[in-house]
């Protein structure tokens, strides 16, 4: 789930979001949208999507949103709070990430994961820090 750039240099970049099957749908300065087609390996023992899948999808989309504003600086998650609202076991998860607050080096982002377009499965807020490059 890499936002783009020079295809020759980004073609080999794979992230954890890629590993779980997340696909970038759109990304601009205001919102990142990602999708994940639910597969059996995403399930927990109850045969519903594991909470870690939601967390990873949200963290990746929210972090990408911040990274788009600082393309040459590392961005790290400092806090992630999630609420699981409804289970899912099949279909496509759609994650939407948007800014709540932007400061110079710390951003607060909101993310929501829906099953399809309207069934809210998880909601998160996260804080992200833009690191300084080493001198």
Helix content: 10-25%
Strand order of the largest sheet: 1-2-4-5-6-3
Provide a count of the helices.
Answer: 3
Oligomer: single chain
SSE class: alpha+beta
Mean pLDDT: 91
Number of separate strands = 6
Catalogue the unreliable spans. 4-9
Order of helices and strands: HHEEHEEEE
Sheet bearing the most strands, described? 6 strands, antiparallel
Strand content: 35-45%
Radius of gyration using CA atoms only = 15 Å
Rough outline: globular
Spatial separation of the terminal alpha carbons: 29 Å
Structural topology:
Elements: H1 7-10, H2 16-20, E1 23-27, E2 31-37, H3 51-69, E3 75-84, E4 92-102, E5 106-115, E6 119-130
Antiparallel strand pairs: 1-2, 2-4, 3-6, 4-5, 5-6
Could you please describe the fold and organization of this structure?
With 135 residues, the protein is α+β, with helices and mostly antiparallel strands. Helices cover 21% and strands 41% of the residues. The protein is built from 3 helices and 6 strands. It has helices at residues 7-10, 16-20, 51-69; strands spanning 23-27, 31-37, 75-84, 92-102, 106-115, 119-130. Strands 1-2-4-5-6-3 form a 6-stranded antiparallel β-sheet. The longest helix is centred in the middle third of the chain and has 19 residues, at 51-69.
């Amino acid at each position: 789930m890499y936002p783009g750039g020079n295809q020759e240099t980004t073609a080999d970049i794979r992230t954890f979001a890629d590993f779980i099957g997340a696909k970038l749908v759109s990304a601009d300065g205001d919102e990142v949208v990602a999708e994940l087609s639910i597969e059996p390996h995403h399930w927990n023992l109850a045969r519903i999507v594991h909470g870690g899948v939601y967390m990873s999808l949200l963290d990746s989309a929210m972090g990408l949103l911040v990274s788009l504003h600082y393309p040459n600086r590392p961005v790290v998650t400092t806090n992630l709070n999630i609420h699981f609202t409804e289970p899912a076991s099949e279909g496509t998860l759609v994650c939407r990430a948007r800014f709540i607050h932007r400061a110079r080096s710390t951003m607060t982002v909101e993310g929501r994961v829906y099953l399809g377009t309207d069934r809210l499965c998880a909601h998160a807020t996260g804080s992200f820090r833009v690191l300084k490059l080493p001198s």
